[in-house]
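2024-03-11 09:14:02 DEBUG pipeline.ingest accepted 1 chain
2024-03-11 09:14:02 DEBUG pipeline.ingest length=319
2024-03-11 09:14:03 DEBUG pipeline.predict start
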Amino acid sequence: MNKQIQQNNPDAQFAQTTNEDEIDLRELFAVIWQDKWLIIAITAIFALGSVIYAINQPNIYKSEALLAPITEKQSGGLSALAGQFGGLASMAGINLGGGGIDKTKMAIEVMQSRQFTSQFIQNHKILPDLMAADKWNMSDNSITYNQDLYSLSSNTWVREVKAPFKPKPSMQEAYKEFIKIISVNKAKDTGMVTVSVEHLSPAVAQQWVTWLIEDINSVMKERDVVEANRSSEFLNKQIALTNVADIRSILYKLIEEQAKTIMFAEVRDEYVFKTIDPALVPEEKAGPKRALICVLGTLLGGMLAVMLVLIRYFIRKPA
């Protein structure tokens, strides 16, 4: 009879379900309270461990520079040539405008490429600072290296690795580490480019940013000069093969534009990026966030402790 009344009365069913839920919650709270000292102990262990971990983490310093992309305005004559003789110019590998590759975007991609990174590491001999740096000594601005990886006295790599890896890190390994500490971002609203590097040593971070800017300008300049020289050689060959005065005149104008490209490249050190705010040696650390590490470690310990207590309770609870 009571069951029939409950079936016909939805409010009574809801009240009974709510009452059961309250009983379950009270039961869970009772279990947690009963094992509160275990929860506190586990949480305290995690809190202490997170504090020790945070303290042992070395400071990371971040140096960054603000750059302005250098854009070249086309002359009226070159724009006219682009409309009439774009096909001929493209055969010579010459870009007369009208939807070519953005030089700024290309420079950013080149700066983060494997080839550029490998050359950068090898040219400046920064592999030990990248792969084996363990501590920065503020007193004498020196770097202490991990002796299990690199011996500074003999300038040799001593790390133990399995094949196909070798004691000396490969450029593929170095690239994976380097790409973690470098950041190149272009602002959508202003178009300005920010280049930043993070490292144990603030002086190293500042030096690498400066080198990166110098190298990317040099690499992009060299690419354009080589391309302009090849284009000029092609155009000179075409001039020798034709006797049509109008075509020869156009080819000479194209050669003139390539000569301008080479001239501008030779007189400008800041070829792609102009430094607006140069990199400085940072005085304040960028990381790690020790307080956040401690808070997250404590919260993680508390949650794991509560889960452990509840799992143990449900395992022991009779069916």
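2024-03-11 09:14:41 DEBUG pipeline.report Residues 73-84 have pLDDT under 50 and may be disordered.
2024-03-11 09:14:41 DEBUG pipeline.predict end
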